[in-house]
Amino acid sequence: KQEVTQIPAALSVPEGENLVLNCSFTDSAIYNLQWFRQDPGKGLTSLLLIQSSQREQTSGRLNASLDKSSGRSTLYIAASQPGDSATYLCAVIALIFGKGTTLSVSS
Amino acid sequence: DGGITQSPKYLFRKEGQNVTLSCEQNLNHDAMYWYRQDPGQGLRLIYYSQIVNDFQKGDIAEGYSVSREKKESFPLTVTSAQKNPTAFYLCACSNPGTRPDTQYFGPGTRLTVL
């Protein structure tokens, strides 16, 4: 059974710092991997989707990488801002979610 | 605008009552999903449907029921058999087979059992 793990569960960084969020999965036979952002009490907003044939995707200050062979994905956030404070979730098809990493960016 | 909506945003239910959560999408997506989110638990799959008139149980289907009579609608009923229904419920849709197969989420319904 596919399991998805996100470490750490919570992270606090000062504004302007670059940071990496980690996601690991146990079954490398995935269709794609998706990173989401969730603000408190809200639904999920898709940030980046990496198809199984791709190794990375970039959107603005965000870069997500995928290494299927090692069962890992990372979400890199450059020059973090207070507005980045949220819970970040990674998911693999069929959307088995990690418990999320709650990020706090201090100003 | 195309999107996925859920209603109501907040829902209160007395113990022993069934309640139905609405999920509607106008993205013309084939697949729809229901998830439950509890604090510290991430999201867990309740039911999913890949085509009209067909649906499959997810990891925690007990105490829930769904229907998929129309492509754009996937209502979730929380029955009295669900032992701990208080949670945040999220609906999603996608178009499997397309590239990229992005999941789109609704804003969620927070159900509280009194």
What can you tell me about this protein's structure?
The complex is a heterodimer of chains A (107) and B (114). In chain A, strand 4 and strand 5 form a beta hairpin. Chain A is mainly β and 107 residues long. The model of chain A has no long low-confidence stretch (mean pLDDT 88). In chain A, the strands form 2 sheets. In chain A, strands 2, 4, 5, 9, 10 and 11 form a 6-stranded mixed sheet that branches. Chain A has a 5-stranded antiparallel sheet with strand order 1-3-8-7-6, with no helix packed on it. Helix content of chain A is 0%, strand content 58%. Chain B is mostly beta strands and 114 residues long. In chain B, strands 2, 4, 5, 6, 9, 10 and 11 form a 7-stranded mixed sheet that branches. In chain B, strand 5 and strand 6 form a beta hairpin. Chain B is globular. The interface between A and B is medium-sized, with 22 and 24 residues.
Keywords:
heterodimer; A: 107 residues; mainly beta; six-stranded mixed sheet; five-stranded antiparallel sheet; 11 strands; 0% helix; 58% strand; B: 114 residues; seven-stranded mixed sheet; four-stranded antiparallel sheet; 51% strand; globular
